[in-house]
From TrEMBL:
Its main location: membrane. It comes from the Bacteria. InterPro entries: T3SS_IM_R (IPR002010). Belongs to the FliR/MopE/SpaR family. Keywords: Cell membrane, Membrane, Transmembrane, Transmembrane helix. Pfam families: Bac_export_1. The gene is hrcT. PANTHER family: FLAGELLAR BIOSYNTHETIC PROTEIN FLIR, SURFACE PRESENTATION OF ANTIGENS PROTEIN SPAR. Signal peptide: none annotated. This is Putative HrcT. The chain crosses the membrane at residues 33-56, 101-118, 155-174. It comes from Pseudomonas fluorescens bv. II.
Length: 175
């Protein structure tokens, strides 16, 4: 019976006298949600690392993880419901995590190919005009990025963001 004299059940993690219980049952829904976010992040990490639109070459450390966590929260409710309905075990979860990582890697490679193509065309044009002649004579001079290749890649990113938008890109990742 609770304080009002009515027999009933309290919310999970709260005793009938109002005291909080620190039990595993109280954290069950949060654990399921955290697990579904981790499964969502498993697909988005390789994609965000490979596709230049997400600018992971500039983001380091905690901001990078925050962006992936925020993008992983988008499909988390659907993943959570599917996990609850399927009642999967830990071995199945490990296989599912591996599948999501591989799928994210394949999607990342496919989505990054147009950017690599335009960067390669810019590098070819820079090579034809002699902008990288010092790097060919002395390879210790620096990186392989070319000015025109970087410009073409940045223009491709700009065109993608202005015409289709980031929403279309993330929808393509999750569908």
């Amino acid at each position: 019976m609770d304080r009002r004299g009515v027999a009933g059940t309290a919310a999970p993690g709260i005793r009938n006298d109002g005291q909080h219980l620190m039990t595993a049952q109280a954290f069950g829904p949060y654990f399921d949600l955290l697990l579904s976010i981790a499964l969502g992040m498993a697909r988005i990490y390789p994609v965000a690392y490979l596709v230049p639109v997400f600018c992971f070459q500039h983001l380091r450390g905690l901001p990078r993880h925050a962006v992936v966590f925020a993008l992983g929260m988008l499909p988390a409710p659907g993943i959570r419901q599917a996990l609850i309905d399927a009642q999967v075990n830990w071995l199945s979860l490990a296989g599912l995590m591996f599948k999501e990582l591989v799928l994210g890697f394949l999607l990342g490679v496919l989505l990054a190919m147009p950017f690599w193509l335009y960067e390669s065309v810019g590098a070819l044009l820079d090579n034809q005009r002699g902008a990288l002649i010092g790097g060919q004579l002395n390879p210790a001079l620096g990186g392989d990025t070319t000015p025109l290749g970087l410009l073409f890649k940045e223009m491709t990113i700009l065109l993608l963001v202005t015409t289709l938008g980031i929403g279309t890109l993330t929808q393509l990742i999750w569908d």
